[in-house]
Design goal:
It is elongated, with a radius of gyration of 16 Å. The longest helix is centred in the middle third of the chain and has 14 residues. It has one domain: Jelly Rolls. It is α+β, with helices and mostly antiparallel strands. It contains three helices and eight strands, in the order ββαββααββββ. The chain is 24% helix and 37% strand. A hairpin with a 2-residue loop joins strand 5 and strand 6. The strands form two sheets. A five-stranded antiparallel sheet has the order 1-8-3-5-6, covered by helices on one side. Strands 2-7-4 form a three-stranded antiparallel sheet. The structure holds zinc ion (ZN).
């Protein structure tokens, strides 16, 4: 097993960050030929997902999260003013378990791994473990 923390500096309040290259690089460096990679975000106002990296689709994904969970008054805002970020994270994954073969992530042609910032910009940590 090999593990690592990856730090991500986000730039916007809501942002899809493609982390596929960083994950693939770590998988390759791990020397593990066949297994699985576990990716986990350590934050309650972020998420992970797999989708296509196409600029129009990224705008659509940002917009659907805003539409499904609009900026509004929520009870958690009494203490933190970021309830919409926590609620948007309900719609995403917080860990992903993906197949590794020949020291490479086995993703479909159009699949990319996204870290989703929901309360940025800030510095974030994700944990990656190749097993
Ligand atoms: Zn909060």
């Amino acid at each position: 097993m090999k593990s690592k923390k990856i730090n991500i500096s986000t730039r916007k309040r809501l942002e899809f960050v493609d982390i596929t290259l960083q994950i693939n690089e770590f998988v390759n460096d791990s020397g593990i030929e066949d297994g699985t990679v576990l990716i986990f975000t350590e934050h309650t106002t972020s998420g992970l997902t797999i989708n296509e990296n196409e600029s129009g689709l990224i705008s659509d994904m940002e917009n659907i999260l805003k539409k499904l969970v609009p900026e509004d008054r929520y009870e958690h805002d009494r203490i933190d003013n970021n309830a919409d970020s926590h609620l948007r994270s309900l719609l995403l994954e917080h860990s992903l378990l993906l197949p590794v073969s020949d020291k490479k992530l086995q993703l479909g042609t159009w699949q990319r791994i996204f870290f989703v910032e929901l309360d940025g910009p800030r510095s974030r940590n994700i944990s990656v473990r190749v097993i």
